[in-house]
Design goal:
Elements (H helix, E strand, L loop, with lengths): L1 H4 L5 H9 L2 H11 L11 H19 L5 H15 L5 H20 L4 H12 L7 H11 L4 H15 L6 H14 L10 H20 L6 H11 L10 H12 L19 H9 L1 H7 L2 H13 L6 H13 E2 L4 E2 L8 H15 L18 H5 L1
Antiparallel strand pairs: 1-2
């Protein structure tokens, strides 16, 4: 990506500056805010790239301090955006944990006491005192054992992403499939579930389809549109409107198999048209996470020159905190573990590659469980 900054400059000068670490110096200069640095010689594109690299450097340095799932989320997306194999050890560690969880869940699939305990574990992160969790906790608790089955589906999908062919992965995914074939997934269409859990529900709908289960994609999309008709936008209060936007982005993002390939835009033109038509309200009210996802939706649909991409990038650049080296929460929280999601999205928007990197396909880790854990 650094070459975009220096497009048109001589190769000799560029190589010299790279050897001296000049690009890193520019990123540091951005973070500490050297006065007048962008006043001459560097346009908006170079500033976007440098902010993206500053975010990457900040989170790369702290990656090992995050919880395993946050590490996995970040490393997987960064690999698919950059192709950098230095993220593979983190992904292998996450894979080992996912296999262990799946094995325990499969073995105890008929144990009601175990399932009850697992449900409480899955609900534990939702006990924070914020609006979204207060709404989600009762809605998800009402799902009963279905929540356990959703987690089983998620872990199976995570393992399949790596296209493993070893005996352990194949056996566990096969056993999970047998369990999931007995499950009724219609609760994903429940009004309250979609209202408080739409992005996650959209993920589950995609994973179900990708795993050759029921195809609920069109049904989910129509259900979402019926619950959030554009004609009633004026009635949606601030957080409710953000719920709608967040759900809309997740009608597109999963189709890319989460940053692995572009998306054919035709079925989703109504979503993109909605973003364009409501640009003013979106830019005024949406959080950095949602703004970045909206811009990424256009990029995934191979529309990098759409004015919405530039608008979203401009907003993300404005939200960047120079002192911290990343984008803070709307309240100014500097906790990096909770900031990972919005910042990896910001990196994707600002440093979208010419091509994405599918996988990684860890087919070299075959055989017994010991090989997976290495």
């Amino acid at each position: 990506m650094a070459r975009r900054v220096f497009a048109g400059l001589s190769c000799t000068w560029y190589n010299c500056m790279m050897q001296r670490g000049f690009v890193t110096v520019l990123a540091i200069a951005l973070v500490i805010g050297l006065p007048g640095y962008f006043s001459t010689g560097f346009g908006a594109e170079s500033k976007e790239v440098m902010i993206a690299q500053a975010i990457r450097q900040t989170f790369d340095r702290s990656l090992s301090s995050f919880e395993q799932e946050i590490q996995r989320h970040y490393a997987l997306r960064m690999y698919r955006l950059t192709g950098d194999t230095t993220y593979l050890p983190t992904l292998r560690q996450g894979l080992a944990l996912t296999l262990s969880e799946l094995e325990a869940d499969v073995v105890h699939a008929s144990d009601s006491v175990y399932i009850g305990r697992r449900m409480e574990e899955l609900l534990e992160p939702l006990r924070d005192d914020n609006r979204k969790d207060r709404l989600r906790l009762p809605a998800l608790r009402d799902l009963g054992p279905f929540l356990y089955h959703l987690h089983l589906l998620e872990n199976t999908a995570k393992i399949r992403e790596y296209r493993l062919t070893d005996s352990v992965s194949t056996r566990l995914c096969g056993q999970a499939d047998s369990i999931l074939r007995t499950v009724d997934f219609s609760p994903l269409m429940d009004t309250q579930v979609i209202r408080v859990y739409a992005p996650q529900a959209a993920n589950f709908v995609w994973w179900l389809y990708a795993g050759k289960g029921a195809d609920l994609r069109d049904q989910f999309m129509e259900r979402f549109r019926s619950l959030y008709p554009d004609s009633l936008d004026a009635r949606l209060k601030g957080p409710e409107y953000l719920d709608k936007l967040y759900g809309l982005t997740h009608l597109i993002l999963p189709v890319s198999e989460y940053f692995q390939h572009n998306v054919h835009p035709e079925p989703y033109r109504w979503v993109l048209d909605y973003f364009r038509a409501n640009k003013k309200r979106i830019m005024k009210s949406a959080t950095s996470d949602i703004i970045a996802e909206i811009g990424i939706c256009f990029l995934m649909c191979d529309m990098p020159d759409d004015p919405m991409v530039a608008e979203c990038r401009h907003r993300i650049v404005a939200d960047f905190d120079k002192r911290s080296g990343f984008i803070l929460s709307p309240s100014g929280n500097r906790d990096m573990s909770t900031a990972e999601h919005r910042n990896v999205l910001a990196f994707a928007l600002l440093a979208w590659p010419e091509r994405l990197f599918p996988g990684p396909y860890l087919t070299d880790y075959v055989g017994d469980r010991k090989n997976i854990d290495q």
